[in-house]
Amino acid sequence: MTGARRRPTRWFALLALSVVLLLGVATGVFWDDLMKTYLDPKIPFQTYKPPPAPDYAQASAWALLPDDPTRPAGEDPPADVFFIAPTTFDGGRNWNAPIGDAKADRIFKRVMAPNYAGPFQQVGRLFSPRYREASLYSLLTLNEDARAARAFAYGDVQRAFRAYLARYNQGRPIVLVGVEQGGVLAERLLAEVVAQDPAVRQRLAVAYLVETAMPADAAPIPPCLARGQPGCLASWISVSEGQFQRARIQLDRALTWGPGGELVNLGDRPVLCFNPILGRVTDEPAPARLHLGAANATGLEWDARPGFLARQVAAQCQGGVLFVTRPKSKSLERQGAWADRRRVPGFNLFYADLESDAQARVAALMAQDATPTAPALAP
């Protein structure tokens, strides 16, 4: 009698365990779809009412701003750095982030600023506008609403850059940095503002479009072909060594600007690929012995200088994509929840390389400006 009672109990336990395992497998398989559904604003962008626009005359509209932006201090570096942040806002009810979203601000301060703006603290005064960035969800789909949300964000960035030029720059050398979503917006900023204004163009030391696929046949300024070359463009997207399928997916999902200001697929167009270790656009391999240093600066105080991990990676451009070897340190591995793994990593493999590269290009631009020109000969 006792054995007969135990059998149903065992069968029930096995059935319950099977159901739990099945649900676990199903959740893992469909987790991406579940999260995308959760983050989907579920409203057409055409009928969506965006959050209020920032006022760039106010300090609150800037995520990074010098203490006195109108008066450079004597100890300040010689240049200005205009930094366009990558994605920090997940989504949900909004296609575009409200200014001052608490979680997005925390991600910027804890992860994005230390790792991606940090390399330029020794280069120049940092200006980073808050803008109504497109949500993480809009980067996970290529539908028209998502593209419209990403294009919408450009209006804020353009207004911020014009406000910066009018109020704060005062003729100083400019380093333009855009990361991921910010890199795509910087691409249009280069074409519509920098390249069209000779005075601004002459002050541009370098533009870094990090994790951005820039069409080589539409570069608004010359690519960086040599170390210390001023006024040039450095752009790249990266994947781990050997991940050729991942590289193909990256290129297939890459967007660029069409003639009407809309975002269009990159297609089969050639892509610029800058190698940060070598400091130039090239397919030549860069060995790890030349790597100046990676850093995991997540969580550090803003003005704290991270320790560099040199000779961690080798890198080579192939087919428009930068293939990077696996870092030796475990601190340079992706971590975090689902959304964290779909944003740019919480570390910078080329922290010290970019710092050195930018300093050299700013110095070259300043030396070029200081060189007296020969007087024109009379006819």
Structural class: alpha/beta
Work out the strand percent: 5-15%
Number of strands: 13
Order of helices and strands: HEEHEHHEHHEEEHEEEEEEH
Instruction: Count structural domains.
Output: 1
Profile the largest sheet. Answer: 6 strands, mixed
Cα-atom radius of gyration = 23 Å
Mean pLDDT over all positions: 90
Could you please describe the fold and organization of this structure?
It is a single chain. This protein is 35% helix and 14% strand. The protein has 379 residues and is of the alpha/beta class. It has one domain (39-370). The chain has a 6-stranded mixed β-sheet with strand order 1-3-2-4-5-6, sandwiched between helices. The longest helix has 38 residues, at 2-39. The radius of gyration is 23 Å and the shape is globular.
List keywords for this structure.
alpha/beta; globular; 14% strand; 379 residues; single chain; six-stranded mixed beta sheet; disordered C terminus; three-stranded mixed beta sheet
Summarize the structure.
The chain is an alpha/beta fold and 379 residues long.
What is the fold's blueprint, element by element?
Elements: H1 2-39, E1 62-64, E2 79-84, H2 102-117, E3 124-129, H3 136-139, H4 144-169, E4 174-179, H5 181-194, H6 198-203, E5 204-210, E6 232-236, E7 238-240, H7 244-253, E8 255-257, E9 263-265, E10 274-275, E11 280-281, E12 315-318, E13 321-324, H8 351-370
Parallel strand pairs: 2-3, 2-4, 4-5, 5-6, 7-13
Antiparallel strand pairs: 1-3, 8-9, 10-11, 12-13
